Amino acid sequence: MNIVITGSSNGIGKAIAKKFLSRGHNVVGLDKDYSAIIHKNYTHYIADIYSDDLPTIENVQVLINNAGVQDTPKMGDIDINLKGTIRVTEEYAIQPDIKSVVFIASASAVTGAEFPAYAASKGGVISYMKNIALRIARFGATSNSLSPGGVLTPLNDHIIKDPKLWDEVMDETPLRKWATAEEIADWAYFVSVINKSMTAQNIVIDNGESSKAKFVW
Fold this sequence. Notes:
Layout: E1 2-6, H1 11-22, E2 26-31, E3 42-46, E4 62-65, H2 76-92, E5 100-104, H3 108-111, H4 116-136, E6 142-148, E7 151-152, H5 157-160, H6 163-171, E8 179-180, H7 181-194, E9 201-205
Parallel strand pairs: 1-2, 1-4, 2-3, 4-5, 5-6, 6-9, 7-8
Helix pairs in contact: 1-7, 2-4
């Protein structure tokens, strides 16, 4: 199938791109940075999903909306995470070839934790995901979102490599671990390719952090 992935140069997006390539799919990546992925079935475009012109890409069957920022100045989280995601989806997903759209949201969209604009932007992504599910159902296509908690990527090194911060985070995480980018990629592949019947749903992948409750008796 023909796959488009935003934010494909690093972290979760890169892992998702490699997952689809390993399964024989054609992948187009969009990112403001260059990509280190070299593969005969991979095409990369340098683009800011919020402000740059989007490339023409035909016959998009799966769209993975992964690109995102966190705690940027002047409400940049809203611009990129929400407005940019809407822009990309309206460009590539509302057409008869589409089979699935997956949005990478965040556990903070469910809990309200983290930075205000970031939490709000990801909450908006989940609402928009449901809107897309209704609009592409006529094509027999699904739309869902994944909401990771902590993920082991370089973006989070300031926590991962600080023993004090890491212990604090683990105290709030029942399974006492974070997901790998590859695990999120497995979820993205399942939801978009294997899944045929689930749509308009948000899946929280946070090792139990959002479900933790302290019982006092």
